[in-house]
Fold these 3 entries.
Entry 1:
Amino acid sequence: MRLLKMDDYRVKLDIIEVGKRLHGRGWISATDGNISVKLDANRIITTPTGVHKGYLTPDDFVIVDMEGNQLEGKAKPSSELAMHLACYKERPDINSVIHAHATYCIVLSVAGIKMAKCLLPEVIFTLGSIPTADYAPPTTEQVALSVIGPIKKHDAIILERHGSLTVGIDLFDAHNKLERMEHVAEITYHSRQLGSATPLTDNQVGELLAIKEQLSGKKLTPSDNCNSCNACGKYGSEALPNLECPSAEIEDSAMVSVIDKVPAELVELITREVVAELESVKR
């Protein structure tokens, strides 16, 4: 565990800077998003609820203990404080948490497209696989519960229909991971517009893990990089429900049973073919 000694005022200025960056990139809007930093073993500084994170001032911040009890600050702490505290309790090695509403991360989530595929070498080196936490209503304790599993081994997580969650050894480390995750989300989006996003092969991932071992000095296994989501289909058709896209309720249960087993990629392919056929008829 590496606990950094923080100067409270310096941390406030750093959070203000990161808030401006998030707003400038369009990853938060209005009062969305929240940022926190661990100051010491029992103090967490967090952004307040109901305040625009792109225009923070040093007087806006709230300090709480590890149980969420407010120690300093006039405003109320972030409405997602429970999620932040869950991350710190599960990961004593981290000192910062950022929750944003990064555009492409949310676009893929709403479309039911997982980001767990091993697509880019630099992501294997840094983030590994990017899992998606189960949907939970924002601001509720269910959000905290939904991230407990994936945060144990992953520093970057998609919150189903809710945005992104990144953690780091410090504030700027968490910010850099968010930037990288949104970048791969944008690449995934555009590659799917051109046809499909082809993942790295098992052998290629193995080679990258070997290089990562050499660079980090830490022995890795494929499970350290994979969340077993089957987004790449390596487990065959038995795990296809992991590819399903959340959809509106359909009364016909038999139809739901069939739809849930159809991979999103196949649905997209069929849709493109149908649209192309209709366009040719119009001509």
Entry 2:
Amino acid sequence: MDQLESKKLLSSVNNSMRVLRAFTMDQPQKGVRELAKELDIGKSSVQRILTTLAANDFVRKNEETNKYELGISVLELSSIFLEHIDLHHEAFPIVTKLAHTHKETSHLAILDKLHVVYLCKVESQHSVQLSSHSGLHLHTHCTSSGKLLLAHSDPYLVEAFMRNSPMKFTSTTITDRDEFYNELKRIRKQGYSVSRGEYRKDVTSVSAPILDHSCNVIAAVNLVGPSNRFTKPRIQFFARELLNAGELISEKLGYWDY
């Protein structure tokens, strides 16, 4: 793609965003001529943009008024955003308490396609500095949060992940297909996940699930630190603490274990 084509593409994307932003609470419906005049874009260009947006359900044409309005795809994207805003808002105080009480780093994580993403990170004064931050994308197969979220994902997603030949980072990283499926089965049975030196040989993490009002696992909360501090008894203790924390966050999101 040459520079001219690139500029045209960027201009088209920018105009599409301007069209979407033109719809307001006061004016939820607008016609082609109205949009063209308001945005100073040619009518033919506006029509092409609206046709493309409509094909992807970002706008729809009201047959009664012959005008356009926002479509279901806008609602779907806003729902995802709002869900994670609520999740972060409800979870952050509990994640903070975990980190400060147990003097280890704590994260809130979600699954984004085939990667685990940290929505927030809280360190205590005594926790070891780790190369993680909010927004960080990590591998799923070698982190406790990633394995836990995969364990509760649709089987096709796990299958797609395994087809990508997961990397081996340490001697304990699980890359064998059967072994990995057994690990996910074990996680579902015990209710929490442990990664002991699977991503970095000197780091261990423990994760527990967070459920929404529909009883779906939507996130994970963890504690992570140096492996020499994560003894077996302490891992068991952290698991219980994280399960309690996950349950508290889940209840705030509308989950209730009848």
Entry 3:
Amino acid sequence: MSCNIYINTSYYYIHNSINTIMTNKYNVEYKIRSYNVDMNQNLAVKNLCDMINDISGLHSEVLGVSVDDLNRDNQSWVLSRMHLVIDKLPQRGKSICIDTWPSGSKGLYACRDYIVNYDDKQIVKGTSAWLVIDIDKRRPIKIPETIVNSQIPFADIEPAIIDDFRGKIETLDTTNSFKTYNANYTDIDFNKHVTATKYVEWIVNELDIDIHKQYDIAEIDIAYKLEIILNSEMHVSSKITEQNNDRIIIVHQIISDDNKKIHCQAKTVWRKRV
């Protein structure tokens, strides 16, 4: 595989030459820096999601369906759901290789899958569902033909995860205890709303510190319901729904302070650290 090395502000990455990525999985190698890890020196799940979103954008550029391409028609990409199954997250100084490819369409959703490899072993697999929105109306639209056509060369690749995104996540009582977060300037992305990985950061930070000391995240399934705009005050809550000697299952919810509408729901699974 011939490669070119690029440097951006967050990561070093290596990607395939353009003559191979049009019909195969697109892959990027990421070096895990000191600012990518948590208190246990493992790659933080929020930063893993940042890398996954980064490679999604890079591949969409190659396929001619990037945010910039969509913006010409007053459209943009937004993430609607992501589901990751995690065996382990490497430590500072290590490198991971992420593979990604478009994995078809389901209604208004354009889907994209991921495999993360470390030391020649698969450590994460995942899938995601994306919507194309009308920027002015802030509403999803039918997937443009250019995007549908860009998926065709990848149709025979085996899915990373079988998930039709129809599974419902439990709704929590709004009287549950919560932490309050404000949507600040640095939380806002190019779509002028809170970036998707900030939701992940909020739900992880809301948990008791003892969970982070004793457990590693093994799965996250997150559903983005409504966008969050600048200066919004949000309530983030969670509830343990299952616990045994080896793992904990937690459901999470982000609601607005003013009208109590649900903006995000998630389920995480945590594995006892050995």
